[in-house]
Specification:
InterPro entries: Pyridox_Oxase_Alr4036_FMN-bd, Split_barrel_FMN-bd. By secondary structure, the protein is α+β, with helices and mostly antiparallel strands. It is 19% helix and 29% strand. The relative contact order is 0.18.
Length: 210
């Protein structure tokens, strides 16, 4: 396999801390770079953003994929989760990213929807490990228990299920897609904070006071 760095495949560059901020196009490229890095590097600060649904509920989720062309994010979720009903076939979704080291916050707004039985979901399921898939074997999120519980069947506590044992889990697996529309980029700096709001599809934006 060729040893190709993500930067070679993804020409946008992150704005380094204390670097000069020149244009709104630079900010848009910085956002794209960070989201791509969040989806492709597990240790990236952007890998686990906070996803907020229309009922003002928030949760940390793992960013699985970023489509630069459509500014689309992909997350995995349990089809039985309450947020699935809230989002449905289309609802406002906010996604908050924060890079503590770089002191950069990106607040994204867009439209989310849930997919359960599409080729994209089948592909995401096929690429998941059996350990990841086993999360969908147990009780649904929020199920009440008299004792602390993972929700998993006891035989799968700390054990990797076989492909055959995971067959019932597939119907509980779903994908959350979020098509981003606007990003609020905020950089903390001792020389003075900077903030910009970018319409991602068109590239139009404006500088605003922090």
């Amino acid at each position: 396999m060729l040893n190709v760095h993500v930067n070679d495949l993804f020409p946008e560059r992150r704005i380094e801390k204390d670097a000069a901020i020149e244009t709104l196009d630079n900010i848009r490229d910085d956002i794209a770079f960070r989201l791509n890095e969040g989806a492709t590097r597990r240790k990236s600060a952007m890998h686990t953003p906070v996803v907020v649904t229309d009922d003002a509920d928030a949760r940390v989720m793992v960013l699985r994929q970023f489509d630069r062309v459509g500014w689309r994010l992909r997350f995995h979720t349990d089809a039985r989760s309450p947020k699935v009903d809230v989002i449905g076939d289309g609802a406002p979704v906010g996604v908050l990213f924060y890079d503590r080291e770089a002191k950069v916050q990106v607040r994204c707004r867009g439209r989310g929807w849930i997919e359960r039985d599409t080729p994209l979901v089948d592909e995401a399921w096929a690429k998941s490990t059996n350990f990841a898939r086993r999360c969908y074997l147990g009780e649904g999120p929020g199920a009440v228990s008299d004792t602390p519980t993972s929700g998993l069947p006891s035989q799968f506590e700390g054990t990797e299920p076989s492909d055959e044992e995971l067959v019932p889990a597939r119907e509980n697996f779903a994908v959350l897609l979020v098509e981003l529309e606007e990003a609020d980029w905020f950089s903390l700096a001792h020389t003075g904070h900077r903030r910009a709001i970018i319409h991602l599809a068109s590239g139009e934006g404006r500088w605003v006071s922090p």
